[in-house]
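[Q] Does anyone have a clean structure-token version of this?
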Amino acid sequence: MRTTRSTAALVAAAVVAGGLALSSPAYADPTPAGTFRQLVGVGSDTTQDVLNALAGDTVNGKSYTGTAVKAASGARIASYDAIEPGTGSTTSKITTRSGGPTFLRPNGSGAGRLALTESLSGDKYPDSAGVSVKGQIDFARSSSGPSASGGALTYIPFARDAVGVAVRGPALGTLTVEQLHDIYSGSLTKVNGQTVYPKIPQSGSGTRKFFLASIGLSDATLSPTVAAVQENQADTALTQDGALVPFSVGSWIAQINGVSPDYSKSAAAAGGQLAAVKLPGDNGATSPVTTVNGKLAPVNAYYENATFGRDVYNVVPSRAIDPTSIFFDKDLYDVFVTSGSHTAAMASDAAEKVIADFGFVNESYNGSVNLTRHAKLGGLEQSGLDVSTPAAPALKATPGDASLKLSWTAPAATALPLTDYRVTLTGSDGAVVATKDVTAGTTSYTFSGLAVGSYTATVAAANLNGTGPAATWKGSVKYVSTTKATAATTAYGRTPKVAVTVTGSHGVAPTGKVTVKEGGTVLGSGTLSGGKVTVSLSNHLKVATHTLSVSYAGNTKLNASATTATLKITKAMPTVTSSAPATVSHTARAKVSVKVTATGTTPTGTTPTGTVRIYEGTKLRATGTLSGGKVTITLPKLSRGKHVLHASYAGSSTVNHKAGADFTIKST
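[A] Here you go.
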């Protein structure tokens, strides 16, 4: 619960802190001291009070416990004021996590976004002389859009506000955009005879940035004589007639109506008001506020005008609200994001009633992260930060059984370290099939259970700046096939055959071509029938053990597959036949005709070559050389009597040796 200090104590504290004495403000940080919550926010003065209320704390004496926004888990927000509650000190410090560092309180939208950036990067806040605030902040309140390009931060519209001009004195009751430009550039010093004393919110204020842009100026073109004051505090800005200062209309309404802590009622009582402004394209001036039942209320025409109407935002890390990211924060998502059927707790009916009570206008796009519905993307807001994203990784893809394995190597290092990889698979129609975010140390991912078809896979590396260009693979995913092959031992000269069987997963029947190779040489091929084919090879493969590669080319549903088979080619077995005369004169020389044939002897088979010897017992009698598988050998003169002889084929590199049957010659 938020508590209140006595006025005397506050004044004393203000003197010590060098801040401003405030009239009975309520404490705004989570109290009592040591109260910590899951979702920490800092930044904009403009939206701090309404965020304090939505945190369920007490604001200006009213408890909002009953309307505290919560995540599904029950997690709540902790909203820390831009300046120290009670003292107005701009140099006070906060601690947002139990055991965490104590650091300077971020004062304004820009400071809040910087602190959020440092919480992500781990750098020191607010500068190198500060402390590391890594992991100490979850979101930033911001009354202006991005100051840096990129996609690291998402600006979620929270409500509609407007920037008015708080003035003192009747001469400034109506102003034009042109007059405001000239006043703040220093070229116009009097309006309706009244000397003007322009003030501007502190550096880093979202209201300051928005207002200057609306009147065509910037910090560089702002007159150096314009004094800086704390944002949305009319009492310290409107100290004399002719004073004027940009002011959140929502904050003015909430303060004057007594909803927010009061920093402006004294100025209002002394003649302070929000000037009517002649908006571009209008004939007359439009007041930002009206009175309804004695209370100030927004004028929608002013809020919706493109010149001074503005969205106010809660800024979150983009990766933290991406449900597919490893950095996804469900609590943060539940509280801030409206997407599809999911409604942000910040956009509930109860929350929007609180938002309206604090002078803001609710819009249909509250909580939207859609860039066409007022959400914005911005980069990290740290001066001098390297804004490069990682290059594309080197990608390799391996299709499997209704699956796809992606492997990659990390790209070259960037100034900011890699944080994760985004892996995406899309179908042939361009629709996203699956997305996966994996840690920076991961180098592979497999998509499984895929339908047969064409796909595109991408892998992109990310750092805090965002996601870099993707490496891309395009190809087909099919079912797996398995190839098996056997080859029987075959004698040289016979036709070797390889029996191949291919099976497909998921009940798919294989069709298509099978090829048999030895090394890079194709030995044969065939077409499957019923998942089988016998491939005949050359009958002239050399006598040896051959290692064959057998590959199936695949089809429209099945991946290719391959196996090996061992084929042993042995020497052919010969048949030796002899023809010789039964008798011969002992003075004559007998002639023996020998024919050697081998298995597989065909017009394209093998014809034995080599030496044939005629033996009588173990005694060599004569030798001849085959020609066309035949030879006629003339024996030496044989002594009278019977001679038992046989022909012996010596064999060759392709045919075994063999002895023929005995034959008898009688020498007379």
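[Q] Thanks! Anything notable?
[A] The mean pLDDT is 92.
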